[in-house]
Amino acid sequence: MDGSAFDILILGAGPAGISAALTARARGRSVAVLGSDPMRSALARAERIDNYPGLSGMSGWDMLAAMLGDLERQGIPRITGRATAVMPFHGRFMVSAERDVYEAGALILAAGTQQAARPYPGETKLLGRGVSYCATCDGMLYRGRRVAVLGLSAGSEADRDFLKSIGCQVLYFTGTQAKNIEIQGEEKVTGLWVNGEEYAVDGVFVLRDAVAADVLLPGLDMSDGHITVGPDMATSVPGVFAAGDCTGRPYQIARAVGQGNIAALAADRYVKEHEK
After folding, report:
1. pLDDT of 57 above 50
2. Do the beta carbons of residue 67 and residue 256 sit within 8 Å?
3. pLDDT at residue 258, as a whole number
4. Dihedral angle sign, alpha carbons of residues 120, 126, 132, 133
5. Mean pLDDT computed over 14-38
6. pLDDT band at residue 154, thresholds of 50, 70 and 90?
7. Does position 117 have pLDDT exceeding 70, yes or no?
8. 42 vs 113: CA distance, rounded Å
């Protein structure tokens, strides 16, 4: 998919995101769901769900497959990818995901507890100045140069191999190796500390399954690693709403589905108020 424009774009393909998408479509909105492979989600790995009304006794994967089937039946696009940046632009939002950019009038953040991952020291300060979240987007900037890849996601080995194929000198650290990390540099990245050892590099690719919400969207209010929302699931950024586990405990499917519904109704009102 080469990038498209929607009334509402939902980041996260779990119960909260699916619920939001179905509600937005019921309100007549163009909507899409952007998220990572659902097979890697916590719900997909759950052996048995016994506390969701009407569907108790199902495996997590069977429940998620049923929800994803509803998206397909409604013709709602599901984009497999990882959002790496959100940019407000003339009253709308531009969302960068891998090689594509998507546009939306409102956003709903529903990426679960992965959004609570915290940046390493130096990561936020040097983002865009040697720190990148996307090898395919920024790899060519480092052709012939030495870079570090922090492989914290399932697809990071492929990104490592891509960087090597375009001529980068790659230092690769897996999730188990990537402890006590600090990214060095003032105006740009100059090095990386890993477990007390320093490596001179020109760039650092931090490859997580999800980017922390307040790094993805600067200015987003957080509390204890969760997105702060009001009764209508509105965040501190106008036009951005959040639902599900990323908003805090309890981490329950029923809560996530209900919040997704509320967020979509609020996003629909926001889009309607800002339509020209």
Report:
1. yes
2. no
3. 98
4. positive
5. 95
6. confident
7. no
8. 10
Query: 206 and 137 in contact (C-beta within 8 Å)?
Result: no
**How far is it, in rounded angstroms, from Cα 257 to Cα 243?**
8
Structural domains for the chain: 5-116+211-274 (3.50.50.60), 131-207 (3.50.50.60)
Q: Is the pLDDT of residue 38 over 80?
A: no
C-alpha–C-alpha distance, residues 94 and 271, integer Å: 15
What is d(CA 184, CA 181) in angstroms, rounded to the nearest whole number? Answer: 10
Q: Could you give phi then psi for residue 262, rounded to 5 degrees?
A: -65, -45
This model's pTM is above 0.85: no
**Token pair recorded at residue 166:** 């375009």
- Residues 121, 201: Cα–Cα separation, whole Å: 16
Question: Where would I find the beta strands (DSSP E) of the chain?
Answer: 5-11, 31-35, 78-80, 83-89, 92-97, 100-109, 131-132, 146-151, 169-174, 181-185, 189-194, 197-200, 203-207, 222-223, 226-227, 240-242
Q: What span, in angstroms and rounded, lies between the C-alpha atoms of 183 and 204?
A: 8
At 119, list the tokens.
Answer: 């940046």
Q: Cβ(206)–Cβ(152) under 8 Å?
A: yes
